[in-house]
Amino acid sequence: MNPLKCAFGVTSGKVLGFVVRHRGIEIDQAKIDAILMMPEPRDILELKSLQGRLAYLRRFISNLAGSCQPFSRLMKKDVPFQWDETCSNAFNSIKSYLMKAPVLVAPMHGKPLLLYIAAQERLVGALLTQENNEGKEVALII
User: Fold this and answer.
1) pTM (predicted TM-score)
2) What is the distance, to the nearest Å, from the Cα of residue 64 to the centroid of all Cα atoms in its chain?
3) Which pLDDT belongs to residue 142?
């Protein structure tokens, strides 16, 4: 163990770009701010950069594949890059979702699990939740 990387008795800390606290795992605010400050992509390289940043946070973004679907046609070979209103709407909805990103928690033993499934023609998404002690549903770490 490297003593410079060890911390004992702390209430929270950053681990692999995420913030671990007593209430669960959250996205580091710097990672969210990097996406919120991004302008709309102007070319394929900027779109790939956006998708890379989103992939890093994929477990926190519900239905990420569905949200990014308008971008997929721009990624095809021999298709001119043309950012339109559907891409703009998808980009803005992802940004607004990240402003209130969920906290992932570990499952509590003895409480029932709730599974939500969303299916579209080309993709399937699932979310596993559980009610916490206050009766509020929270997303679980899978």
Assistant:
1) 0.66
2) 7
3) 60
